[in-house]
Amino acid sequence: MSSIQQILVVDDDADIREVIRIQLENKGYLVLEAANGNDAVNTVRENPDIDLIILDIMMPGMSGIEACAQIRTFHSAPVLFLTAKSKETDKNDAYENGGDDYLVKPFSQAELFMKIHSLLRRYVVYKGKSESAGNLSELHVQDIVIDTVNHWVYRENQKIELTDTEYLVLMYLVKNKGNAKDAQAIYEGVWNEKFLPSSTNTIMVHILKLRKKLELDFNNPLIIRTVWGKGYQIDEG
């Protein structure tokens, strides 16, 4: 496994790929490229050590959203959508299909690298390359079992597939059991970025996705509860 972090840049515009590639290589990253969704999926399959995927949405053939959904079936590297699509519905669609963050074109180099550094830092923790992930190897939340070594989640020996960001949001709430955490606390605790008004929607989408995967009754959530006026909470016990 290479010690140099690998980033896949996916965009049908060769000029955009070149600009991003040069910026990334100047920062010491190993850069792979793909011109469409199909090539992106195949590149990730052939290069399992990829640490981050920068993905356009509007491409001929398979869209970036479709490519992300396919990649999520076999790889957990964070996906940063880099796109001209700026509507909230576009962002929701991206997050619902496994995206981790979203940056609208045109963008500044500083903003791009801020998001890249944040995503890579979280992925290092997710893959267990940092001791900050915690010392307990197994945690229990009602009938859910969390394997903190492999970052897997189970119910009755059936694995529940979570993205790395979903796992980190869950672990943040687990580590704060019995205490309601609002969107700002969760965002700053997991993303390590300044909270913005739009960040509330990001948290809502990730909580929604977690509930769909973890709750036996989605309409009556018992694992991740809403504490009105305070935020989200996992109870003690």
TrEMBL record:
Sorted UniProt keywords: DNA-binding, Phosphoprotein, Transcription, Transcription regulation, Two-component regulatory system
Which residues are annotated with the PTM 4-aspartylphosphate? 56
Checking InterPro entries in the record gives: CheY-like_superfamily, OmpR/PhoB-type_DNA-bd, Sig_transdc_resp-reg_C-effctor, Sig_transdc_resp-reg_receiver, WalR-like, WH-like_DNA-bd_sf
- Residues forming the Response regulatory domain are 6-120
Residue span, OmpR/PhoB-type domain? 136-236
Protein function: May play the central regulatory role in sporulation. It may be an element of the effector pathway responsible for the activation of sporulation genes in response to nutritional stress. Spo0A may act in concert with spo0H (a sigma factor) to control the expression of some genes that are critical to the sporulation process.
Q: Which residues bind DNA?
A: 136-236
Q: Which organism is it from?
A: Lacrimispora xylanisolvens
Q: Name one GO biological process term.
A: regulation of DNA-templated transcription
Gene Ontology cellular component list: cytosol; protein-DNA complex
Keyword Disulfide bond: yes or no? no
Q: Which GO terms describe its molecular function?
A: phosphorelay response regulator activity; transcription cis-regulatory region binding
Protein name per Swiss-Prot or TrEMBL: Stage 0 sporulation protein A homolog
